[in-house]
Amino acid sequence: MTENDLLYALALQHVPNIGDITAKKLIAHCGSAEGVIKEKKQNLLKIDGVGQVILAELHKSHHLKDAEQEIEFIKSNNIKVSYFEAEDYPEKLKHCIDGPILLFQSGHINLKQQPIISIVGTRKITTNGIAFCEDLIEQLAVYNPIIVSGFAYGTDITAHKAAMKHDLQTVACLAHGLNQIYPKVHKKYMVDMEKNGGFLSDFWSNDNFDRNNFLKRNRVIAGLSSATIVIESAEKGGSLVTADIANSYNRDVFAVPGRIGDSQSLGCNNLIKHQKAHMLTTPLDVPYILNWELEGVSKPVVQKQLFVELDASEKLIFNYLKDIEKQQLDSIAMNCELPIFKVASLLLSMELKGVVRPLPGKLFEVI
User: Fold this and answer.
1) How far does CA 85 lie from the centroid of its chain?
2) Domains in the chain: ranges and CATH
3) How far apart, in whole angstroms, are the C-alpha atoms of residue 249 and residue 321?
4) Half-sphere exposure of 94 (CA within 13 A, CB side)
5) Minimal CA–CA distance to 27: which of 91, 92, 99?
6) Three-state DSSP class for 118?
7) Cα–Cα dist 340/186, whole Å
8) What tens digit of pLDDT does each residue of 97-124 get?
9) CB 9 within 8 A of CB 83
10) Taking a C-beta distance cutoff of 8 angstroms, is the pair 181, 187 a contact?
11) Which pLDDT does position 325 carry in this prediction?
12) Superkingdom of the source (predicted)?
């Protein structure tokens, strides 16, 4: 991306009322951000969904001047910028309609060729939540996942610290520009974060600190990852917003169940209750449901038994798959009227018996 391309992309990103979806629509029509800025207003108004309010401030000169100042900040702070059409833009985020047109990053982030999971949850994490989060990352470390979170109090910083402890790459998505860190007490983790991972943001250095930015930031956390894991959550909270966004992107969501009545488990229990998340009771549920494989280790060949004994639930699943052929875990659970967590366990048992086999995309079929 040339400096001129960056200048106009920044200017377009800076225009009020033009969000990422509209910006992408305008760029697609005009060929580039520069083309949008230089196009006549009457021509842009012909684009479906683009009206006077959206274009009201597009041609004001201060956007380019502000963009020049932001480029100076980017240069002086060695910040990497990724454009949504560029090869270095995060692959999974490319498939999100509202993904940022520009991402700013510091540190040594490499999002290629590794599984990526987001871990989110309450800022008021309990000792049980901390223990589960740390155990989760410890057991998943063998798969070398990238751990994404929001660098906030509670669950976020617990996940980042556990990832660093096990030498995993960890990425913090910020709700502000890269000129600051919130909360300030977490500055002490910055150096270690940037050694193997770092910070991502789609906010400028002069963007005002606003609580609404946290909700906007959550789409990046959900969009970067193949799955979002909610450790603990009250009945309402930002982590539930992240889970909803992940569901809208057709990404997997996991939730750790808690005791009925525990305030920091209400959100997770509701996600599971309304079938918006897989129940996560053991760390190994994650690689099993996501169909991860250890690098350099092939799955053992399972010898199909000539006479296999199946219990009633296994027979139900077997007969369903035999008639429908390959099917996803969620669909199997729904059509067999069994809980997802039980179906996951049954499928593992049936795989070991040589009756079914997993396929990419959480699909299963009868052998």
Assistant:
1) 19
2) 3-76 (1.10.150), 116-290 (3.40.50.450), 312-366 (1.10.10.10)
3) 27
4) 11
5) 99
6) strand
7) 38
8) 999 999 999 999 999 888 999 999 999 9
9) yes
10) yes
11) 77
12) Bacteria
